[in-house]
Amino acid sequence: MILNRKMISIIAVAVLLVAAIAYYLVQLELEPTFYYTAAWILVVLLLLALGNGFLTHQFDKHIPWLKYGNLRFFMQLAIGIIYSLVIINLAYVTFKGLFTANAPTPEQYVVMNAYGLVIFIPFYSIYFSLQFLRHWKKSELDVEKFKKESIRAQLESLKNHLDPHFLFNNLNILSSLIDRGKEQSKAFLDNFAEVYRAILRSKDEDLIPLSDELNFIQSYISLLKTRFEELILFKIEGGADIQNKVIPPLTLQMLIENAIKHNIISEKRSLEVSIAISDEYLIVSNSLNKRPEEPKEQSGSGLENIRRRYRYFTDREIKIMRNASHFTVEVPLIEMEEF
User: Fold this and answer.
1) What is 162-335's CATH number?
2) Which of 233, 268, 299, 317 is 20–30 Å from 290 (CA)?
3) One-character DSSP codes across 50-102
């Protein structure tokens, strides 16, 4: 673990304080046993502080509170107590061997561990409680921040779909379909209603099963196919196990919408969109025929929206790749925990 400036400052102050106390105690000319005991206590406290700080850093990195709350609580508590007892015993054996001629007896081990439980464990419990409270408050703030970001994303998506142009285009399509046949117009209306139902329902969900998102996207694709006909081509590849896989709602829809927004769709060059699912990622790729000019405030806003929402659930980054012919986005699939 790399020591930061704050920790270095704390260690430096602690060393100076210990040196001052040691100098004062030497002047008192007490029994040597007292000095050995005081040194043992100080060394144990220092090792407990450094070791538990390292454990906290590793737990924050690999088992964060927000994602593994219950598991983190019991694992860190158990490992912290075991580590504390090991340090207490090792320090005692070391000091006993260095400064006395007698090896520790079983009775001394029992007494020393009893003192350790009585003296050091409460200190660790206080430290652990403060760590827990600090991370709990941070988690609460993160949750509130996520809710705001999620609401903003949902409102943005809802605004896009309630845009007058979107409604006008789809109502015009519905009007033309009524003249063609009842069955075709009914199918379009069902898909149109399903899209709105899914969008409105998503405002109450932070994560949804990938299977639900795929079912919803079929309705959305049907609307697009009716509107663009053969000018937009979709290819969906499965194969991976999607059970227990979840994603933030409307992620796939926003990626498709992003492809349509930033590319020209014409008879000369159609838009091709492929959707693939691997064990860990949802991959959306589209052919490139970029619009000549895009408003700077809108460019990339959809992807940034997705990035912000993903940060609350996983440390894995969204991958974005671009070449001369294709634009590809890979978003992580989140494993739904079972408790």
Assistant:
1) 3.30.565
2) 317
3) HHHHHHHHHHHHHS-TTTSHHHHHHHHHHHHHHHHHHHHHHHHHHHHHHH-SS
